[in-house]
Amino acid sequence: MQNWSCHSCGGCCREHEIGITDDEKKRIENLQWEAADGVPTDRPVVVRLGSGWRLNHRDDGACVFLNSDGRCRIHAKFGELTKPLACLAYPYAIHPAGKSVTTSLRFSCPSVVQNLGLPLTQQRSEIEAIVRRVVPKDYTQPEAPHLTTRIPLSWPIFMQIQAYIERGLADAHVSFAVRLIRVLSWLDLLEKVEIEILQSDALGSLLAALHEASLRAYPDNSMPVVRPGRMARLMFRQLIAQLLRHDTSVTAQKGLAARMQLLAHGLRFTLGVGAVPTSPDPPSVQTAFGLPGTENQSGRSVSFTAMEAPAEGRTTEIDLLMTRYFQVKVQGIHFCGRAYYDMPLIDGFRALALMYPATLWVARLRVVREGRNQILLRDVQAALATLDHNFGYSPALGLRSSRQRISQLAAMQQISALCNWYSV
Ligand code: SF4
Question: Which of 201, 320, 401, 418 could form a disulfide with 357 if both were Cys (CB 3.0 to 4.6 A apart)?
Fold first, then answer.
């Protein structure tokens, strides 16, 4: 169900710091760039990134090798394989899956989120070529993600649970929110199961029973909508502030004033009073969706209170987008273990589940700022492209405080409440 081809929007060349190896640095510098190539001559093409290296950017934030057609000058002049591996691999993300690997996608790419391009099933050989370059020759099976911090899993058991999550999310008879709440409910029960049962032959029947019980508990879309508690809404707003934050080479240059503004924004999200702080959308989102992105443009200021009012517009199309997003992330093991701050399966899935209300919250913000009352597919696509940039990549989401937030929201039974409350 997933398509992708690059449409040369240049978003990834503006929004990422491309880390490169020593060999890539030597290779790229030896290509002898000149002014006639269009590469800036007033700065090195490679600069320090921590103890390693990264491609340099222009003052407007674009990679020094990005040309005005949104194409890479290294690719155009010397061929695709000369580019750094990170550029070749994006928007794919390759993760361990037992003795093999699995591939996920970054929905920060507007073509991925809009499902534009060739079906991935027709691109298997290209994807395998990237995998061969990314995966070390001496790859050995790493430990599977744990179920919880104290319960380790083998890969076969991990995959059994993963298959039931996929099954739960695929049931198109009910809304996506209900599917998500069903899976969250049986994972809550699985968390309490003794380790001996998880490691026994009884696991298959246990998973089937939990899945069936969740269908009986939430048989249709007629769930009562209960407003999440005050503390849950506060923690949720803090999560949104972290997901919305976009650090690029341009923001890094802005210095103390910009950091103070970020701090003030974070504080306003925590307090949840007054107007919702906004920042410009990432360049790729502005290019792809052409929506007003700053307070200086046509978007109006929105109060936190207005964000809690019911919105209209849940459609099958939006559910299909969220189903595709979750399928890619679950099949690509892009929510726990190595791909998600070494989080255990259950907490990692809870973090992924929170992307659903967070995305709809940000989509709703776009709607209210434009003076509309209906959430459209484009609003959700733009919101998901903005937030997925950070999912699994922002250091803030891997901090102890972020892990504690997930455990606390789960202990208060508020993750399902948030999914339900913001689903319309
Ligand atoms: S963000 Fe996606 S569509 Fe845009 S240049 Fe990068 S890979 Fe291509």
Answer: 418
Contacts of 249 (CB under 8 A, 6+ apart): 17, 57, 61
| The pLDDT of residue 248 | 76
Q: Does the CB atom of residue 144 touch ligand 1 within 6 A?
A: no
Rounded Cα gap, residues 169 and 183, in angstroms: 7
Three-state secondary structure call for residue 322 = helix
Provide the pLDDT for residue 296: 43
- Centre of ligand 1 from the C-alpha of residue 143, in Å: 33
Phi, psi (degrees; rounded to nearest 5) at 209: -65, -40
Strand partners, 410: none
Contact between 166 and 327 (Cβ < 8 Å): yes
Can you tell me the distance from the alpha carbon of 334 to that of 240, in angstroms, rounded to the nearest whole number?
A: 19
Other C-beta atoms closer than 10 Å to the C-beta of 274 total: 11
pLDDT of residue 404: 98
Residue with CA closest to ligand 1 atom 7: 6
Q: What are the angstrom distances between the C-alpha of 418 and each of 106, 208, 277, 354, 405?
A: 24, 26, 21, 8, 13
In this predicted structure, what is the pLDDT of residue 297?
47
Q: Can you list the residues of the chain whose pLDDT is less than 50? A: 293-297
User: What pLDDT, on a 0 to 100 scale, did the predictor assign at position 365?
Assistant: 92
C-beta neighbour count of 43 within 10 angstroms: 13
pTM of the predicted model as reported, rounded to 2 decimal places: 0.94
Query: Using CA of residue 115, residue 117, residue 122, residue 127, what is the dihedral sign?
Result: negative
Q: Nearest to residue 392, comparing CAs of 28, 17, 105, 19?
A: 105
Cβ(336)–Cβ(159) under 8 Å? no
